[in-house]
Amino acid sequence: MLSIIIIIVLIAFNFYFSLAEIGLISVDKATLKIQADGGNNRAASTLRLVSDPDEFLSAVQVGITLVGILEGLYGGDMMAALLEPVFRSWHMGNYGAHLLALLIGVGSITYLTIIFGELIPKTLALLDPEKISFLITPSMIIFSKVAYPFIKLLTSSTKYILGLFHINTIQEQKLTDNDLRGMLVMAYKQGLIEKGEFMLHKNISAAYDLPAENIMTPASIVMVLKEDMAREETTETIKRSTHRTFPVMNSGGEIIGALMIKDFFLEPDKPLHALISPVSYLSLNQGIFDMFQLLRRESTIMGVVLNEYGEFEGIVTFHDIVSGLLGNLPGYNTKERFLEQQPDKSWLTNGITRLSFIRETLNMEWLRPYEEEDITVAGLLISKLKHIPQSGEKVTINQLTFEIKRMDRHRIEEVVIRQTSST
C-alpha cells in the first residue's frame, strides 16, 4: 500500500512541474505587464518569475529530473515486488515471474506518468496559462529558493555552453503592432481603460500612417480665391462655400497662402493680398503625424498638397488631421458629409462624400481598406467601373450596392446606396 502511495505522490509531483513549465512558458507577458501596472500583485510576482526564463526553467527541470530519478529507482521495483508473487502463483519460474512483473510495472508507471504527469497537466496549462501561472508562482518561487544551488549550477552551465557557440540568451522583447492592439483590447476588456480611451487609441493606431491624399480635400472640390480678386467677387465666392479657410492663388497659378474669412470681414479696408497667411507644402504620401508636426512648427493654418510635378492636388487643415485621427467632426464641409436615408431604407449621398464618413455613419468597418485608394464615393465608383460613369450604373461591394443617380457632365453628383440581400 505504501508503495502505491509513493508512486501516486511521484506522479503528482510530475503533474505539478509539467503544469508549471507549460503555464509559465505560455503566459502572455504583455497581459501580465498591464495587470501588474494596474496593481495586481499576483501578476507582478508571475512577471518577475517569467522575466528570467533560464531560472524558472532550470527549477522546473530540477524538479522533473528528481521525480524521474525517484520513479526509476523505486517505481519499477515496487510494482515488480507487488506483481511477482502473483506470477509465481501461476507456476512461472522465478526469473520469468520477475522479468514479467518488472516489464508490466515499468510499463504501467510509464503510462500513468505520460497521461497524468505530462499530457493532462500540459493540456490544462495551455487552456488557461494565466490562471495556472498565478496558482503555480508562489510555490515555484519557494522551490526555486530551496533548489537555488542546483538551479545556479544549471543556469551557469547552460549560459557557458551557449556562450561557446556565441549564442546570446538575453534578447530584447519587441512589441509588434498586433501585440500593441492585443494589449489595448485586453486592457479594455479587463476594465483598465474606458471605452472612449480605447477608441481613441484604436483610431490613432489605425490612422497613424494615413497619407495626405487620404485626408485632404481634393483640388477638384476646393474653392480657390485669386490674389487679384475684387472684394465683391471674393465675398460672393465665400458665400457660396461652407469652408472657413480658402487657398489663394497668384496669377501664375501657384498657391501662395490662405485666407481666413474672419480676417477678411474684420479687415474690410485691407486688400486681399495683405490678409493672406502663409501655408505649408505637403507631398501626397506625407504621413498624418508629419503633417501635424509641420503645420505646428511653421505656425500655418493650411497645408497645400502637391504631386511630384508640383501641381496642386488638395488642401489639409488641422480639422482634416483631427478628423483623420478621431473620425469626422461637425462644423466644416457639410457637402462632403451628406448622407440622407430614403423612405425605402436606402441612403442618398453626394459623389464627393468621403468613404470614411460612410463607414462611420453606417458602421461598415470593411470599407476602411478602400479608403487607402479612394477618398470619396465617386473615386471608389470610378476605380471600380474603369470608365466615365453614366446615370443608372451600379457597383456592388460586399452586399452593398452603389447606384449612380445623377451626373453633372462627367462628374458623379448623387449616389444611392442600398443593402443587397444575400442569397
Automatic annotation (TrEMBL):
GO molecular function: flavin adenine dinucleotide binding
Membrane topology, as annotated: Multi-pass membrane protein
UniProt keyword terms in alphabetical order: CBS domain, Cell membrane, Membrane, Transmembrane, Transmembrane helix
Coiled-coil residue windows: none
Domain CBS residue range list: 275-331
Annotated transmembrane regions: 95-120, 132-151
InterPro entries on file: CBS_dom (IPR000644), CBS_dom_sf (IPR046342), CNNM (IPR002550), FAD-bd_PCMH-like_sf (IPR036318), FAD-bd_PCMH_sub2 (IPR016169), Transptr-assoc_dom (IPR005170), UPF0053_domain (IPR051676)
GO cellular component: plasma membrane
One Pfam family, short name: CBS
Signal peptide as annotated in the record: none
Localization terms from the record: Cell membrane
Domain CNNM transmembrane: 1-197
PANTHER family the UniProt entry points to: HLYC_CORC FAMILY TRANSPORTER (PTHR43099:SF5), UPF0053 PROTEIN YRKA (PTHR43099)
Protein name: HlyC/CorC family transporter
Organism listed in the record: Chitinophaga varians
